[in-house]
Design goal:
Strand order of the largest sheet: 3-9-8-5-6
Number of strands: 9
Number of helices: 0
Helix content: under 10%
Radius of gyration: 14 Å
Shape: globular
Length: 153
């Protein structure tokens, strides 16, 4: 079960609307095939983690929150957190250490921009298995967090 919000209500994934990225191959449109930009008001949510291929500039894999270990695709990847709502910032933590803090959509580990320009791959994945935690902090002080066990190839 995902960690709770700081107000003790369970964190829930983003509903299957434009707030969350489409499944791979879903023809999501929007920048990098991620679908419409997420809403920027209301309660904060955090859905899937999406791996964008630097080569194709499109979704290569979607990682739903899970207890199992998932393998990152080979090649240059940018990881995108599907956060929506009144987001102040999104923190990416690898094995408990904050490696990136993003304040603007798209919320990425690696580099991407809202105009859909070139991607720069994330090169900081440790060898082997590691934990990636995404922490979304809302402007109201609410926090939603999810973790993924990932394996680098």
């Amino acid at each position: 079960m995902p960690p709770p919000n700081d107000d003790d209500t369970p964190a829930t994934p983003a509903p299957p609307t434009s707030d969350a990225p489409p499944a791979v191959g879903g023809g999501g449109g929007g920048i990098y095939g991620l679908g419409a930009a997420p809403r920027q008001s209301g309660p904060i949510t955090l859905g899937d983690l999406v791996a964008l291929s630097v080569a194709t500039r499109s979704p290569a894999r979607v990682f739903p929150p899970s207890q199992s270990t998932a393998t990152l695709p080979r090649g240059g990847m940018v990881l995108v957190a599907s956060a929506a709502g009144n987001v102040d910032r999104v923190e990416f933590k690898v094995n408990g250490r904050t490696v990136v803090t993003e304040r603007h959509y798209p919320y990425t580990l690696g580099w991407a921009n809202a105009s859909g320009g070139p991607l720069t791959a994330w090169r900081g994945a440790p060898r082997g298995t590691f934990t990636l935690q995404v922490v979304v902090r809302g402007r109201s002080g609410k926090v939603v967090s999810r973790s993924w066990r990932l394996r680098s190839a």
